[in-house]
Amino acid sequence: MSIVLPPLRVDDPAAFGRVAVLMGGEGSEREVSLDSGRNVFEALRARGIAAHAIDGMPALMRELQAQGAGRPAYDRVFNILHGGVGENGVLQGLLAALRVPFTGPGVLGSALTMDKIRTKQVWQAEGLPTARFVRLPPFATEDAIKAAVQAMGLPVFIKPSAEGSSVGVFRVADRESLSPAIAFAGQHAGELLVEQLVDGGEYTVGILGHVALPSIRIVPAGAWYDYHAKYVADDTRYLCPGLSGEDEDELRRLALAAFRAAGCHGWGRVDAMRHADGRFALMEVNTAPGMTSHSLVPKAAAQVGCDFEELCWRILETSLPTPPGAAA
């Protein structure tokens, strides 16, 4: 493995000041976010960083508004609030307006990548490979769904454009398995996509600063990598690195290009699939990836000698000002 992480930028925990570890919230990914947040909080504390756990954006806003009124300020935010306002640009916009540094991409990258459809449109414009898809409107009708499935050809995934952790994702292998997706779509207030099912292997690549970490091939025990396989099951296999030689280099190159094309910086994770003929298809970007015992960025970082505590430190370093002359 030739991947080498750069030297740490700071070695004194005081350089970070008081850090708010933002977790939880009220969305569909609350429990996963709380798990991730507790792990990050404990890791930062173990390294001597003045970390403080905060549950949800309203609590954070109250704390920030109370600064200067007898309560000390937070110098930066470690955002581990999965989904919703934690990843759609709302939190990022508020923190930018308040001039509070934070981890993860800014408003543009966060808002764009929360929308799978528009992320794919950007990748297509940049000549980056992604799975074919058909866009569906909110509250999609049964006829619209069936027409999209017919246009794509089975098997397909039907999924919300703006959800994470496989929430609301349906794997449709035949017409008999369409009913749950149709029922969900008819009640869903956001856009959906009917997406080509790429069945040649599932991969993910963590991004840390300017480095694409080793890829991970995900091999679930079941038919696909659903919520249970991600966060509950212990029989999902993670092969890291997921590929070797030129194939590994190409996947990591594509992941970094996809991350940057979507306006992202700092850290995140790019998911991809591989066709049976070896071609890659970029799927989505996660701008506040999980940091649980099942999560993938920590697994990839460990492959290059970066343990969980160091990983949290390095992620927090991305919230520091960019050194003069360094790439943004």
TrEMBL record:
GO molecular-function term, one example from the UniProt record? ligase activity
- Lineage top rank: taxon: Bacteria
What does the record give as EC number?
Answer: 6.3.2.4
Protein's cellular compartments? Cytoplasm
Tell me if Nucleotide-binding is a UniProt keyword of this record.
yes
The protein's predominant localisation is: cytoplasm
Is Ligase given among the entry's keywords? yes
Q: Which InterPro entries match?
A: ATP-grasp, ATP_grasp_subdomain_1, D-Ala_lig_Van_CS, D_ala_D_ala, Dala_Dala_lig_C, PreATP-grasp_dom_sf
Identify the residues that the record assigns to the ATP-grasp domain, covering every copy.
Answer: 120-317
What PROSITE patterns does the entry give?
Answer: ATP_GRASP, DALA_DALA_LIGASE_1, DALA_DALA_LIGASE_2
- Where are the membrane-spanning stretches? none
Q: Which SUPFAM superfamilies match?
A: Glutathione synthetase ATP-binding domain-like, PreATP-grasp domain
Which pathway is it part of?
A: Cell wall biogenesis; peptidoglycan biosynthesis
Q: Which reaction does it catalyse?
A: 2 D-alanine + ATP = D-alanyl-D-alanine + ADP + phosphate + H(+)
Q: Which cofactor does it need?
A: Mg(2+); Mn(2+)
| Entry's family note | Belongs to the D-alanine--D-alanine ligase family.
Quote the protein name from its UniProt record. D-alanine--D-alanine ligase
Question: Which source organism does the UniProt entry give?
Answer: Luteimonas vadosa
